[in-house]
Amino acid sequence: MTTDDIINRTVIANRLDNITEEMGISLEHSAHSPIFAEACDFACCICDSNGDLVSQLEGIPILATAGSFSVKKVIEKYGDDIHDGDGFILNDPYCGGNHLPDIGIITPIFYDDELMFFCVSRAHHGDIGGSTAGSYNPKATEIFQEGIRIHPTRIIQNNQIIEDIMSLIILNTRNPSMIRSDLLAQMGSNKIAKKRLTSMIDEYGTDVVKKAVGDNLYLAQELTKKRILEVPDGEYTAVNYIDDDGFQEEPIKIQVTVKVKGDNLTIDFTGTNKQVKGFVNTSVVTATAASGIASLWFLGSDIARNGGAFNVIDVVLPKGSLVNPHEGAPMTLSTLIPASEIIGTIFMAFNKAIPDRLPAGYGTYLGPSFYGTDPRNGRYYIGFTFCSLASGGAMKGIDGKPYMSPMSNYGGVKTPNIESNEVQYPHITLVHEMECDTAGAGEYRGGAGIKYAFQNYDDGCEIVMYGDGVKIAPYGLNGGSTGSLQVPLVRQDGEWIQTESKEYPRKISDGDIVYIHSAGGGGYGNPYKRDVKRVHEDYIDGIISRESALNDYGVKINEDGKVDMDATSKIRGV
């Protein structure tokens, strides 16, 4: 590889990353719905002409990583019938999608009649039909109750939207003007990518660009193999659980065996629970993407997150299991709960191979969607609770980060602005802050959980509670404590009611309150080894109470707020 090759490879790799970032900025600023414009629940990526991922937006990993699956399904269906000026749409989790609310827009990029790239914008839409507004249906027993399925379908031809296809899709949703606006934002994001990619090829030429892309994929592949060689050969098995599926009370097992032999890495889900009745099944796309995310997290942050790296990792997904159900099973919760627990279980397995590289358990998602007619203006609304995200686990040397869950998103979802929320939806925020004594204790503590409450003033509002983590807390590592459980509450008629984590629409009235206590992350290491100064700082910051300082960390804090060092030394035995 010449010096020019190295320079071109690096510059073009950064250009591609900048293009995906600009795609994301475009989506955030041009979309209509709060789920795009406020929470940024979307991802953008660029694939080569074979469908291999070459660049992705640093946003929501489970969406961006899965982008190449969509492209490959478009190639599989349309083959040579892909032309300049085309655009394709899909969301079917049995054919290249994550789950139904995540709609992908795929645009082929041609240069001098040669197919060079595909760009993908994939985003979560507020409603995609089905029997429940918001499309999270805890009582769904088949995918047809969750929304409209879109196989890879041409929606743009000769740079013109095929309105028959657009109408067929949006009229199967509860807010067609909103979804049309957001789909146009995705198409606009892809137009920006097309313009920037064409400009890049104008500057460097097709041969230089193709070589640079190929070199970057190859280097990521070789670095991934090199890192796998550093892991001791062997089989490392871990088991983790989802609380339930909303029908059965028994926990649902995820079993992973990480198999390492030379530079070969296999993630094997043999032993995982059979597919279940409820909507916590997961697609092959989501399970495979989650496996790649977890593996590269362990192998190194300096490995480019592209197809060269991901293609090295083999994934075994037994047919008929939770991670590869027979077609028709519901799976809307797949990107939140199963994806996160898959990542956590793989972390547990890798920790047996080489300890201390990965964090303790993360909280998972829990919160309602809510919908109704806004009494202020008569408009129909659908909203989601992004203000109650749980927190991350600690690892050696680092405390857990708050508000980073679920792991499948890893901070990619932004906290909506409270004032904007109150303009968009008929409710008032009562509290939104970190909660004391929720972080898993340890030499390095977990992130503190979040408490979030809002008071509704729409007399016809309904909420759908969906999530997990009310029975099984995030795990600790090396003597660290577990994090806290999640608690969903509703105050109706003056009485506090703890809801199920997966509950069908509950009507709430004017004045009712929804209160979510999200999980704190697991701790790492013996809490008695935590620096006394840091324990005291946590007390001052409201992360822990005096009682927790004493009982969990062996640190005596007097009523005046000062540390009693003599008593602390005796308690800690030092």
Biggest sheet character: 7 strands, antiparallel
Which ranges are low-confidence, i.e. pLDDT below 50, for 5 or more consecutive residues? Answer: none
Query: What is the topology, as strand order, of the major beta sheet?
Result: 2-1-5-4-3-6-7
The level of helicity is 25-40%
What integer value in Å does the Rg equal? 24 Å
Mean pLDDT: 94
Shape: globular
Number of strands: 20
Q: In whole angstroms, how far apart are the ends?
A: 59 Å
Total DSSP helices: 14
Strand content: 15-25%
Structural class: alpha+beta
List the helices and strands and how they pair.
Blueprint: H1 3-30, H2 34-37, E1 42-48, E2 53-56, H3 61-64, H4 67-78, E3 87-90, E4 102-111, E5 114-124, E6 153-157, E7 160-161, H5 163-170, H6 176-204, H7 206-229, E8 234-242, E9 252-261, E10 264-268, H8 284-299, H9 307-310, E11 313-316, H10 337-353, E12 366-373, E13 380-384, H11 418-424, E14 427-434, E15 450-456, E16 461-467, E17 487-492, E18 495-498, E19 503-508, E20 513-517, H12 532-540, H13 546-553, H14 565-572
Helix pairs in contact: 1-6, 1-7, 6-7, 8-10
